[in-house]
TrEMBL record:
Protein name listed in UniProt: Phosphate-specific transport system accessory protein PhoU
Domain (PhoU) ranges: 25-111, 129-214
Keywords assigned: Cytoplasm, Phosphate transport, Transport
Protein encoded by which gene: phoU
Keyword Aminoacyl-tRNA synthetase among UniProt keywords: no
Organism domain of life: Bacteria
Gene3D superfamilies per UniProt: Phosphate transport system protein phou homolog 2, domain 2 (1.20.58.220)
Keyword Transport: yes
Family, as annotated: Belongs to the PhoU family.
Subunit structure: Homodimer.
Lineage: Bacteria, Pseudomonadati, Pseudomonadota, Gammaproteobacteria, Cellvibrionales
Amino acid sequence: MDKMTFENHYMKQFDEELEEIRTRLMEMGGKVEQQLQNAIRAIGEADSKLAEEVIKEEQLVDNMEVDIDEACILIIARRQPAASDLRLVMMVTKAVNDLERIGDEAKKIANHALILADENGSSTGYTEVRHLGQSVMSMLSNALDAFARFDVDAAMLTIEEDKQIDQEYKTALRELATYMMEDPRSISRVMNILWVVRSLERIGDHAKNLCEQIVFVVKGKDIRHQK
């Protein structure tokens, strides 16, 4: 095998490895997206079985994170990527961490869904969960779509969505506080809802992190902590 053929073969293998970790990251993203959707459904429908499925799937998400991290370490060790290729590998290692955290928050929501289903009480707070949940689901979906296309413009627009989610979160907190003041008997139940909306707000933050990493890969600019 002459030198040119060897180099072409090497680059082809390298490109395939980069595409593989990107594909696996998208699969993980799809998994946590479904996990979140089911967790929100479990709250609204008082579905204990669905909540338990979300909790069980968390281990699969954890395993996916470990596998992708190991693949990234092997690429760095064997290929010693530079410039944009190195940024992509580093982005994947950070993105899988954010996705794993989203899975953690979905599991927390599912745990609270179990408690709420057992109480079999009123639907107080469900409107806030449904409204904020829809916004967060949309933001996460947009973030994953921007990553799939390496679309910086879409990533920047998605980052802006976090401001709206933060505002909706504050509104939900005020509404839930009002419920507790009007009916002290609802405090225990509403506290569970409070933890749910807190998890949703954190998921929005993680989706924002994903978009910031897209900008880093494509533009080589770190826009974290910038207005």
